[in-house]
Amino acid sequence: MMMSPVEFFKTLPKKMCPECGQPVKEQAESYLMECDRCLSKKSE
Questions:
Q1: Which Pfam families does this entry report, sorted A to Z (predicted)?
Q2: What pTM does this model have?
């Protein structure tokens, strides 16, 4: 039995920040890989 697309996306694991390992707050049309905290450290 095939899984519906909605169920498929609900079961995907959260995106994790490669820098600190914390879950990344995902936003529509955002392709950022790092979390906000790590991104703010890079701009300093």
A1: YhfH
A2: 0.61
